[in-house]
């Protein structure tokens, strides 16, 4: 299980949220998750985004099924694996960014390589919000890439602490919201590229990660919200 | 007198048979790259009855196991636990006490649960030191496919005690 603190800052405002996630492994390859938010401060005009493939960055409660459909452990500490995620979510607020919020579905796929020294992960996903009272939040295709490295100084053997540094990048193509009285909906999408560092520390059954993402490209539709940064901190415990 | 001799034979043989077991396993594990991975495997192994000491090394990619006296654990149970935690069990170095037997022209060491067939790679010198009955050896158990584990293994003996 994990507890996370997340914040998204736009040009005008910032959101603050705590999020609790519970993981349960049904088999070695199948896992269910449930993530619930405690929203401390909502954005009046929230950008369409997710925190990552694991959890939303808004007020949604999400349940998901993870299936590791490929795994190849080919060396000491080395493996390739691929995972598919399918989730459903329900909002905890009625309106988000002045648009009614419906339930949504989310699907993602990721594949990557892990070793004791290097990590590389590629993924992509799509979230679709259902219409509610003639209004609909925009959909969200996205892709992400993570490169991780553990320097020799952090190569202490278990049960010593285990630290890694990452560079994360995220590309999002959020669709515009649809709402009553809207004229000339063009189906255009914004394009965002965010990059930033993150750190992961593991000790026994505990894990802590923290990081930030900064937009380097924001090609936005007129109604989309410009972001300044995203930060998150996540504390995990494996029961 | 005959009864006493018979009783001694039964007691001695019975005692040796009950001691036929694996005593130590250094199990190579592939795919384990993080502290929670090691923690999960360590915790899973500790739940198995018959282990005296469990130590998992991420850098070596190994689980070092000391088995208790009179344990009833099998190598298959250990490797299945590795697989259950999402990793792949590879070669294992074991210290084993078992009954050395000849079966259809091949030689093997048997414990209560498993048979370790002596691999051809075992040197002639070491093989010649094995006599029928209870023996104690150290060796490398060759990797078997994780999804197709049986109670039969190939053992390349590296030391005879």
UniProtKB/TrEMBL annotation, chain B:
<dbReference type="InterPro" id="IPR006121">
    <property type="entry name" value="HMA_dom"/>
</dbReference>
<dbReference type="InterPro" id="IPR036163">
    <property type="entry name" value="HMA_dom_sf"/>
</dbReference>
<dbReference type="GO" id="GO:0046872">
    <property type="term" value="F:metal ion binding"/>
</dbReference>
<protein>
    <submittedName>
        <fullName>Heavy metal transporter</fullName>
    </submittedName>
</protein>
<keyword id="KW-0732">Signal</keyword>
<dbReference type="Pfam" id="PF00403">
    <property type="entry name" value="HMA"/>
</dbReference>
<feature type="signal peptide">
    <location>
        <begin position="1"/>
        <end position="20"/>
    </location>
</feature>
<feature type="domain" description="HMA">
    <location>
        <begin position="23"/>
        <end position="90"/>
    </location>
</feature>
């Amino acid at each position: 299980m994990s507890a996370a603190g997340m914040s998204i800052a736009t040009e005008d405002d910032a959101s603050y949220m705590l999020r609790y996630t519970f993981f349960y492994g049904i088999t070695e390859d199948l896992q269910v998750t449930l993530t619930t938010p405690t929203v401390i401060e909502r954005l009046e005009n929230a950008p369409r985004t997710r925190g990552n493939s694991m959890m939303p960055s808004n007020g949604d409660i999400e349940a998901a099924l993870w299936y590791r459909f490929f795994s190849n452990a080919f060396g000491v500490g080395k493996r390739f694996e691929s995972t598919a995620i399918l989730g459903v979510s329900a909002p905890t607020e009625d309106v988000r960014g002045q648009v009614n919020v419906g339930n949504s579905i989310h699907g993602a796929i990721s594949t990557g390589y892990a070793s004791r020294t290097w990590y590389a992960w590629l993924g992509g996903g799509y979230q679709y919000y259902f219409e509610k009272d003639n209004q609909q939040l925009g959909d969200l295709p996205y892709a992400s890439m993570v490169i991780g490295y553990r320097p020799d100084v952090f190569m202490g053997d278990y049960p010593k602490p285990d630290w890694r540094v990452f560079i994360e990048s995220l590309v999002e193509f959020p669709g515009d919201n649809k709402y009553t009285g809207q004229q000339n909906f063009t189906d255009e999408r914004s394009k965002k590229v965010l990059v930033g560092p993150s750190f992961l520390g593991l000790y026994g059954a505990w894990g802590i990660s923290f990081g930030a993402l900064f937009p380097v490209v924001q090609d936005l539709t007129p109604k989309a919200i410009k972001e300044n940064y995203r930060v998150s901190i996540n504390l995990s415990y494996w029961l | 007198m005959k009864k006493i001799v018979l009783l001694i034979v039964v007691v001695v043989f019975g005692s040796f048979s009950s001691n036929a077991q694996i005593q130590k396993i250094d199990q190579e594990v592939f795919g384990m790259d993080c502290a929670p991975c090691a923690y999960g495997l360590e915790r899973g192994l500790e739940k198995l009855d018959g282990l005296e000491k469990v130590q998992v090394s991420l850098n070596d990619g190994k689980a070092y196991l000391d088995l208790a006296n009179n344990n009833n654990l099998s190598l298959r149970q250990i490797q299945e636990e590795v697989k259950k935690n999402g990793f792949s069990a590879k070669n294992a170095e074991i210290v084993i006490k078992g009954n050395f037997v000849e079966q259809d022209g091949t030689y093997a060491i048997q414990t209560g649960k498993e048979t370790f067939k002596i691999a051809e790679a075992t040197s002639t010198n070491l093989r010649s030191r094995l006599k029928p009955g209870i023996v104690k050896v150290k060796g490398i158990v060759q990797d078997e496919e994780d999804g197709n584990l049986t109670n039969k293994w190939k053992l390349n003996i590296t030391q005879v005690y």
